[in-house]
């Protein structure tokens, strides 16, 4: 087996592999392994294709995370793991077995059920379209039709958070708070429980904005990335949050998933 100087993790699935990759990505946040390649092998439906993937992983000294619904493929990957001395991790198998044993029921063993085109699927698609169409306060009338309203200053990750929540099926609109602009009147209507304020450490935001200016090729002494301006914006945002009486989440050093979890826990309780 040829050892690679980088780290390699294969995602093997008889569907699109999103579940396994989400688990791998969450796990990798706990490690300092910057040269890690994560590669998806999607729609694996026959043993020859599976063997080719396993041989590549063996050559690269990697490991495999898999979600395979078909019993014959689950057995095949275990056999290949032994033959090639490759570490494999069954992401869904133990949970499926636990459910089957506890509730005396058998799984469907059909690939792709996570993404079947049922009512939740279409709700997610609708929510994603909504988030894109009304991103960054493009149409304030959308505030009254949203499930979740995010408020905060520029570069506080409102857009990626909106997209993540939309993927969960929630119509999410985000609106930027700027001292020179009066917040839309719709925010002061009866929207209790839907509005969430986002705040951040001023120094952390300064770094984010300075990097943004660098990427755009703009001078780093612009007011946008000055500590005085940032503190002014954050103070203004906190005043608006107080007027609205909405929950405020400090997103400093929080992953999008963590912030979304806090919002959904508050929304659903």
Describe this structure in words.
The structure is a single chain. α3 (71-84) links the parallel β3 (63-67) and β4. With 269 residues, the protein is α/β, with parallel strands linked by helices. The radius of gyration is 23 Å and the shape is elongated. The chain has helices spanning 18-28, 47-60, 71-84, 93-103, 119-133, 158-167, 202-216, 227-244, 256-268; strands at 7-13, 36-41, 63-67, 87-90, 148-152, 172-176, 195-199, 248-250. The chain is 45% helix and 15% strand. It has a four-stranded parallel β-sheet with strand order 2-1-3-4, with helices on both faces. Strands 6-5-7-8 form a four-stranded parallel β-sheet, with helices on both faces. The mean pLDDT is 88. It is built from nine helices and eight strands. α2 (47-60) packs parallel to α3, α6 packs across α9 and α7 packs across α8. Bifunctional serine/threonine kinase and phosphorylase involved in the regulation of the pyruvate, phosphate dikinase (PPDK) by catalyzing its phosphorylation/dephosphorylation. Keywords: Kinase, Nucleotide-binding, Pyruvate, Serine/threonine-protein kinase, Transferase. ADP binds at residues 152-159. It is an enzyme of class 2 (transferase). GO terms for molecular function: transferase activity.
């Amino acid at each position: 087996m040829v050892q690679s100087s980088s780290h390699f993790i294969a995602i093997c699935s008889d569907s699109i592999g999103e579940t396994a990759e989400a688990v791998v990505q969450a796990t990798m946040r706990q490690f300092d392994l910057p040269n890690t390649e994560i590669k998806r092998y999607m729609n694996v439906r026959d043993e020859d294709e599976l063997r080719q993937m396993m041989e590549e992983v063996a050559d690269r000294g990697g490991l495999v995370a898999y979600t395979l619904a078909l019993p014959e493929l689950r057995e095949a990957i275990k056999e290949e793991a032994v033959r090639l001395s490759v570490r494999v991790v069954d992401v869904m198998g133990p949970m499926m077995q636990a459910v089957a044993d506890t509730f005396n029921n058998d799984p469907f063993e059909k690939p792709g059920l996570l993404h079947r085109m049922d009512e939740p699927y279409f709700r997610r698609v609708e929510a994603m379209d909504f988030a894109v169409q009304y991103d960054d306060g493009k149409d304030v009338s959308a505030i009254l039709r949203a499930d979740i309203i995010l408020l905060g200053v520029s570069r506080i990750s409102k857009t990626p958070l909106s997209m993540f929540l939309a993927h969960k099926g929630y119509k999410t609109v985000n609106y930027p708070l700027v001292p020179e602009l009066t917040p839309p009147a719709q925010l002061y209507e009866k929207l209790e429980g839907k509005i969430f304020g986002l705040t951040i450490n001023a120094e952390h935001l300064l770094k984010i904005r300075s990097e943004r200016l660098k990427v755009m090729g703009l001078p780093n002494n612009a007011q946008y990335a000055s500590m005085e301006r940032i503190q002014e914006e954050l103070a203004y945002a906190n005043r608006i949050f107080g007027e609205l009486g909405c929950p405020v989440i400090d997103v400093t050093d929080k992953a999008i998933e963590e912030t979304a979890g806090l919002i959904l826990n508050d929304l659903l309780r």
